[in-house]
Write a structure and sequence with these properties.
Blueprint: H1 21-33, H2 38-71, H3 75-124, H4 127-132, H5 135-177, H6 179-187, H7 189-226, H8 228-233, H9 237-263, H10 265-289, H11 295-336, E1 358-367, E2 370-380, E3 385-389, H12 396-403, E4 411-416, E5 419-420, H13 426-431, E6 433-436, H14 447-452, H15 460-469, H16 473-478, H17 496-510, E7 514-518, H18 526-540, E8 544-548, H19 552-556, E9 560-565, E10 568-573, H20 575-581, H21 584-600
Parallel strand pairs: 3-8, 3-9, 6-7, 7-8
Antiparallel strand pairs: 1-2, 1-4, 4-5, 9-10
Bound molecules: adenosine-5'-diphosphate.
Adenosine-5'-diphosphate binds at residues 1-3, 131, 367, 370, 372, 390, 392-398.
Length: 601
C-alpha cells in the first residue's frame, strides 16, 4: 500500500494571504502563552525596568560630568560621579543577567509545552493525514512552528519591554534637558515607519516561499534516507542530487533576498538617525556657543539620543522580524487547529468479545477520490481462518485498515460479535486485534523491546516463550548480543524472515482473539518459509484469522476464501468449491500453478 505521497505545496492555507491575520496570530500567541507565565514575565519586566532606568541615568549623569568636571573643574565631584557611574553600570549588568536568564527559562518551558502539545495532536490524527503529509513536511511544520512561537514571544517581550522602557526613560531625559531639541528628533519618525512597512510586506512573501522550498529539501532528504536501497539499486543518486540542488538553490536565493531586505532597515534607520543627530548638533552647538546655554544639558541630550538609537532601530525592525515569524506560526496553527476527526464518541463503551466473529456489511470506502471498496460484504467465522485473495489493488489491505479503524467507511457497517466498531473505543478495538505484515516495522531498540511491544511490561520469560513459539529464539540467541541486540533503523540489522518472526512473537505476546495476517510475498528461502509457516500455524490456532493470501498452500486450508477484484468480493467458498466453480479463483490458481511449473523447469 502506498503511503508516502509527495504533496507539492503542503502548506496551502487561506490565512497566508490574509493581511489581517498577522495581528490575530500574534494576539493568539500572546494569549495562549503569556498568561501561563505571567509571574515570570513580570519578574523579567522588573529587570527590564531596571535596565531602562540605569540607561537613562547614564545619559542623565553626563550633564554633571560636563558641568561639574569640565566646566566647574570640581575635584570632589569627580570621585562622586565616578562612584555613581560605577554603581549604575554594575546594576545594569546584574539586571541584564536576570532578564536573560528569566526569559530563556520561560522560552524553554514554552518550547517543551508546545512540542508535547504538537506531538499529542499528531498522535490524534487519522491515517489519512499521514497518507497526505510526508515525514519531512510534518517535521518542518513542528520545528518551524515551535521556533516561531519562541522567537515571537522573545522579540515582543524584549523589544516592547526593554526597548520601549529604555526609549521612554531616555525620552524623559531628553525632554527635561531640552524640550525643543526633542522635537527635532521626532521629525524622523514618519519616514521610518513608512519605509519599514513597505519592507515587511516583501519579507513576508519571501519567507512564505522559503518554507515551501525548505519542505522540498527535507522531503528529498527523507525519500533518500527511507528509500536508500532503491535509490542505490536504480542508480537514482544523480536524480536525487538534482532534486536536492534545485531545492537548495531556491532556499539560498530566498534566504539572500530575505537577508538583504531585512538589512535594508539599517541604511534607512542610519540615514534618518544621522539626520536627527546632525540637526541636534547644529542647533545645540549654536545655542551653546551663541546663546550661552548649558553645555552639560546638551551633552546629556546627545548621549540620550545616541543611546536611544539602538532600541529605536530594534523597535522599527520588530515588525519586519515578526513578519518573518508569522509564516511559521501559520503553518503550526494549521496543524494545531486540525479537528481530531477520529476521536471516540464521548461515552463509547469498550468492545465486549465473545467468539470474535467479524462481519463486513455493504461497506463502501474510498481514499479521498480514489474508490477502494464497493458494497463489500463477508463474514470471517469466529476461531476460523478466512482468506482474502485477489490481484494487487483489489482492496485486501483496505479491509484490514478499516477493521483496525485507521479509516472509517463512507457507508456500511463493520461488526465484531455484532458490535459496530464505530461505536466502541478504538483502544479496546485495537487491543483485540494483532497484525503481522509483510514488512513489519521494528523500532531501533533491542530485539527484546521490539517483541515486548506486543504486551508492555511483560517478563523476560514471556518474551522468550513467545520468541520460541515464533521460531525466533534460536536466531536471536545467535546474534552478537542475543535479546539485547539492536534492530537498527527500521530493523535494518535483521533479514526479512527474521523481522517477520519478531513480528510473529509480538503477536503471540499480544494474544489477541483476532489475527490479521498479510502473508509475505517476498521470496524467502525454503527454510525460513517453513519456520515462518509453522510459527504462523501456532499463532492462528483458535483465533479468528484473516489472511491476505499470496500462496495457494495457505489458501487450501482456509475455512473460507473470499476472492476480491476492484474493491468487490466476487466469489466466496472453500478451495474445492471455488476451484470447481471455474471462475476468477480457478484462473488465479492456474496462473500460480503455471508459474510454479515454469520455475521448476
Ligand atoms: P490490495 O491490498 O488488494 O493490493 P489495497 O487495499 O492496498 O489493495 O488498495 C485498494 C485501492 O486503494 C487501490 O486502487 C489503491 O491504489 C488504493 N489505495 C490504497 N491505499 C491508498 C491510500 N493510502 N491513498 C489512496 N489510495 C489508496
Amino acid at each position: 500500500m502506498e503511503t508516502q505521497r509527495f504533496v507539492r505545496n503542503p502548506f496551502k492555507s487561506k490565512t497566508w494571504t490574509d493581511p489581517k491575520g498577522t495581528v490575530q496570530l500574534i494576539k493568539r500567541v500572546l494569549s495562549e502563552n503569556f498568561r501561563t507565565y505571567i509571574p515570570k514575565y513580570l519578574l523579567a519586566f522588573v529587570f527590564m525596568g531596571v535596565i531602562a532606568a540605569t540607561t537613562a541615568a547614564s545619559a542623565w549623569i553626563m550633564r554633571d560630568v560636563v558641568n561639574e568636571v569640565f566646566v566647574n573643574k570640581d575635584a570632589q565631584m569627580v570621585y562622586v560621579i565616578g562612584a555613581v557611574v560605577f554603581f549604575i553600570f554594575t546594576l545594569k549588568g546584574v539586571a541584564t543577567y536576570g532578564q536573560i536568564v528569566v526569559l530563556a527559562r520561560v522560552g524553554n518551558e514554552i518550547v517543551t509545552d508546545l512540542r508535547r502539545r504538537m506531538f499529542t495532536i499528531l498522535l490524534r490524527q487519522n491515517q489519512a493525514y499521514f497518507d497526505r503529509h510526508t515525514l519531512a513536511e510534518i517535521g518542518v511544520q513542528v520545528g518551524q512552528g515551535v521556533g516561531a512561537v519562541k522567537t515571537t514571544l522573545d522579540m515582543i517581550v524584549t523589544t516592547l519591554g526593554r526597548d520601549v522602557l529604555t526609549i521612554i526613560g531616555l525620552a524623559v531625559v531628553m525632554a527635561v534637558q531640552n524640550p525643543l531639541l526633542s522635537l527635532f528628533a521626532l521629525i524622523t519618525m514618519p519616514p521610518a515607519v513608512i519605509g519599514v512597512t513597505f519592507l515587511i510586506r516583501r519579507v513576508k512573501e519571501y519567507v512564505k516561499r522559503q518554507v515551501v522550498s525548505n519542505a522540498k529539501v527535507s522531503t528529498v532528504m527523507q525519500e533518500t534516507v527511507l528509500g536508500v536501497r532503491d535509490v542505490r539499486a536504480f542508480g537514482m543518486e544523480p536524480v536525487m542530487l538534482d532534486k536536492m540542488e534545485v531545492g537548495l538553490q531556491e532556499v539560498k536565493k530566498q534566504s539572500n533576498k530575505i537577508a538583504s531586505l531585512t538589512a535594508r532597515t539599517s541604511p534607512l534607520m542610519d540615514t534618518l538617525g544621522g539626520v536627527a543627530i546632525s540637526l541636534v548638533i547644529l542647533y545645540g552647538g549654536y545655542s551653546v556657543i551663541e546663546l550661552d546655554q548649558d553645555p552639560g544639558a546638551l551633552f546629556s541630550f546627545i548621549t540620550a539620543l545616541l543611546l536611544a538609537y539602538d532600541p529605536a532601530r530594534r523597535l522599527a525592525r520588530l515588525n519586519v522580524n515578526l513578519g518573518k515569524q508569522v509564516v511559521g506560526l501559520r503553518i503550526m496553527y494549521d496543524l494545531v487547529d486540525r479537528k481530531p476527526d477520529h476521536e471516540d464518541e464521548p461515552d463509547a463503551p469498550d468492545i465486549v468479545l465473545e467468539a470474535a466473529q467479524v462481519e463486513f456489511h455493504d461497506v463502501e470506502f474510498s481514499y479521498g477520490d480514489s474508490a477502494a471498496l464497493h458494497n463489500t460484504s463477508f463474514v470471517a467465522e469466529a476461531g476460523k481462518m478466512t482468506a482474502l485473495v485477489g490481484a494487487s489493488g483489489a482492496g485486501k489491505s483496505t479491509v484490514f485498515s478499516l477493521l483496525e479503524r485507521f479509516y472509517d467507511p463512507q457507508s456500511g457497517e463493520i461488526l465484531i460479535d455484532g458490535q459496530n466498531i464505530r461505536n466502541v473505543t478504538q483502544r479496546s478495538l485495537r487491543e483485540c486485534i494483532a497484525f503481522v505484515g509483510q514488512d513489519p516495522f521494528l523500532f531501533n531498540n533491542s530485539i527484546r523491546d521490539n517483541i515486548a511491544v506486543g504486551k508492555p511490561g511483560c517478563s523476560q520469560e514471556e518474551i522468550e516463550a513467545a520468541a520460541r513459539s515464533a521460531n525466533a529464539h534460536d536466531f536471536i540467541m545467535a546474534l552478537p548480543e542475543g535479546y539485547d541486540t539492536r534492530a537498527g533503523q527500521s530493523g535494518s540489522n535483521l533479514s526479512g524472515g527474521q523481522k517477520q518472526r519478531v513480528a510473529i512473537a509480538r503477536a503471540m505476546l499480544r494474544d489477541a482473539p483476532i489475527l490479521l495476517l498479510d502473508e509475505a510475498t517476498s521470496a524467502l528461502d525454503a527454510e525460513s518459509e517453513a519456520t515462518i509457516q509453522s510459527a504462523l500455524e501456532k499463532l492462528m490456532e483458535d483465533r479468528t484469522t484473516l489472511v491476505i493470501a499470496h500462496r495457494l498452500s495457505t489458501v487450501r486450508h482456509a475455512h473460507r476464501i473470499h476472492v476480491m477484484d476492484k474493491g468487490r468480493v466476487l466469489e466466496s467458498g472453500t478451495h474445492n468449491e471455488l476451484f470447481e466453480h471455474d471462475g476468477i479463483y480457478r484462473r488465479l490458481c492456474e496462473l500460480q500453478f503455471q508459474d510454479k511449473t515454469e520455475a521448476a523447469e
